[in-house]
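Notebook entry, structure prediction.
Reason for the run: the old model in the group folder had no record of what sequence produced it. Starting over properly, with the input documented here first.
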Amino acid sequence: MRHGDLAGERVGVFQGGGLSSLALGVWLREQGADAHHYVADLGQSRPEEIEDLAGSLRASGLPVTVVDLRPRTAEIGLELLRHQARHDGGYWNTTGASRLVLVEQLSRVLRADGRTVLAHGCVGGGNDQRRFATYAREFAPDLAVYAPWTDPAALARFPGRAAMVSAVKDTGLLLDRGSDADRSTDATLAGASHESTALEDLATPVDDRSLAPRWSAWPGEAPAAARTVTVGFEAGRVVDVDGSGADPVAVLETARDLGAGHGIWLRDVVERRIIGTRCRGVYEAPGLEVLDVAWQRALEVCLDPRARELYGTLAPLLGAAVYEARYTTPAAVAARAAVEELVRPVTAVVRLTLHRGFARVAGITAPGVGADQQTRFGSGGNRWR
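New structure, fully documented this time:
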């Protein structure tokens, strides 16, 4: 779809405050398109930052609706944990999962508002353009999709990020604090990805000169005193993190703040991309990193060996499915259902000690723990029990 095809259409813009999506808003206004911006609150920023973004759009004459997608984002984020849906280097697929959430949830809002076109600002030919196209075919086959950076006219107007920054600033739009001409942060409640000119160079170390974390402290800046916290699981679900209660948003927010505050967050990887290339990225998911330490110990205690074996076979399949936008295909749905059944016995309370970049298991209580546990030294040291 090209800009000339937008005449007479009602465009719904997926807006998160990143540079390319804001530049899309500028471009559509210059074309005289009937465009409405849907600011998705995925938990990527503080509530006041979301409102400031929406306010800057309104002040610039761009219609806005803020949509709270934190509950669905948290739900999917905790599915990534249960399903161990990781990609290269073990990082959590929070960006791929957010594309599903955005299209699944916002397409309903666009349709209810009478919008006829879904527009997003993802880079032409990249992973996310493919993800949006794939999920749009499933969740919004009635909506046309406009991807501006495949439109030659839009590319001529914005040949690079520097031109985008200039236009966004001239329009008075509020740019996300993790995005500028040389870097980009894609964040949700569950985690954030960091890319930049510096980080594309594999010789660049990840430190405070090359990266500004979204939420997290560097391990050396974390408190000197360790902290012990508890994570509760019931029938394979996280039901509490140090007093959070079972609400998924509260669970992930509490886990995120704990991990971030104690410097537990960093994954520095070179990933294989959908489009066949490799690219270096840095990933920040403090909540999932903390929860995973507890989850792994609970699996060890609560699952039998054959269940663990099958679980370990299905997890990589689901990791690839999230990354490649195949999470709703029949194969992935079947694998997800199997994982949910396998983890049903996981009921436990795990104690963790958090300290300067590490989460360590401090203990676990669970029904049946010890029933088949061998001990020797507790029996005098010369025989097994």
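Summary: The chain has a mean pLDDT of 95.
The old model has been moved to the deprecated folder.
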